[in-house]
Amino acid sequence: MNRFFVNEKHENYFILNKETLKHLSVIRIGDNPFICVYDKKFYKCILEFDKAKIIDEINENHEFKHEVVVAISLIKYERFEWALQKLVELGATKIIPMVTEYTNGELYKFNKFEKKLERFQAILQNAAEQSFRNIIPELTNLHKFEDVTTMEGYKKIIAHEKQDESASIENNIDSNVLFLIGPEGGFSNNEIETALKSNVNCVSLGKRILRAETAAIYMISKVKI
User: Fold this and answer.
1) I want to staple 187 with a disulfide (CB 3.0 to 4.6 A). Which of 20, 89, 174, 191 is the partner?
2) Model confidence over 187-206: pLDDT tens digits?
């Protein structure tokens, strides 16, 4: 069934915005049921005029037990969009765009991040609907690397290509976790030193050098389902 996030509930109905109504019209929903996601819960609904009438509540939770945060350096525009989509599909609860020493690309050089924020939010919502998420993950404002390393309440993990392979990332991470993903040039030695001083665990992802978006997917796959 098609799934849509909604923000407004009146008695036994959800108020649908113009975009959702247009989508329902395009797919010719008719009397077929669809799912509305409201306050982290799923509701089976049918269209009644311009509202969604609730016919049943679906008691399912598709989220991790713990908070999974990914801080990823700004990279090339198309690859950043792809990373956002896949991180949502894989269960990230929050995504922090990050500026590091080697951050490059048009999103950073030409101050395009803020201009593209609405599009990024739409990507997150579409990916959350497609992957049957209970929530739309939060996309924060830009953060400096140093500010991310000092965040509290998480097991913090950073990947570095110069780290010894024996320090591999653990499997089945079962706690609040914050992954730090570097840009195309990786993290500088100074940044790694800064991270270590803030009790960030430095790990190896193996012998090969991974793209930023590939590293992000690899690291989030280590979270216990």
Assistant:
1) 191
2) 999 999 999 999 999 999 98
